[in-house]
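Sequence of GTPase Obg (Buchnera aphidicola).
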Amino acid sequence: MKFIDLATIHVSAGRGGDGCISFRREKFIPKGGPDGGNGGDGGDVWIIADLNINSLTDYRIKKIFHAQNGKNGSGSNSSGKKGKDFFVRVPIGTRITNSESHEIIADITQKNQKILIAKGGKHGSGNSKFKSSINQTPRKKTNGKFGEYKILRLELILIADVGTLGLPNSGKSTLTSSVSNAKTNIKNYPFSTIHPVLGTVKIKKKDFIIADIPGLIKGAASGIGLGINFLKHLSRCRLLLHVIDITKIKKKNINKMRYILLKELKKFNQSLFNKPRWLIFNKIDLLTKKNFSKTLIYIKKKISNHQKCYFISAQKKIGVKKLSQDIAQYLYSK
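Predicted 3D structure, token representation.
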């Protein structure tokens, strides 16, 4: 099923029911007083978080949603029934924006979170409400009001503690699957990851969520490749892992490899660029001991001592446990 993270929907709250004009008709009381009841309020529209949904796919086709109208009032001072509310179910991480004003209405970030999005119309009043000392038989009622109507933009921004970044085939998906329960598509070709994948990493009682997004390439910020479409899914992350294929490092090109990605990050969003970022040099199992030693010396010369670095093999799970433990320690110490 295709991953959908953007959708536009139209929501209408219910109209309030009309009031009623009625008079009592009882034996021996030929001119009974007014007994027209009020209408019922219109139903509201709510946005509610649903843990069983992980995409906005349901809103590709069906885009218009209505709450129920309130029922009209009737005689014997009987009020109309309130219209049923309607619940729009969305995945956790969904941001709701008013499409016309561009105002952010709410961020759905918690389990069972519920937001009133469109208020139902107020009920109309029956003629019994208008009885007074100078008007014993009012023939006046009011109609119910229309409910709110809104055009909403739904944008799914996945909630993860840690996000992976890297060029295609750097081993991000393998790393994500080796440390978590994520089911990633791992193939030996560019863009084997075509949509974000979430996985949970369990380190004793220090669990965290990791996100894998498609690889970035030069020009991504201008729309080339896939990753730029999904960078927003890293905006809630507290830590980024920049995964680099150590076998592709050649003399004098380490910083060039790093800056390709960093340049695209900065173009996309300054706050994402400023997030804490660790360098993960992957695929060390593919180097001979001699080549690894030379590469290690070269990297340490080019990388700042303040930059946190790890040397791993996601495929062989070399160094992966230590990396996971350090991530958990970092997240839970903040």
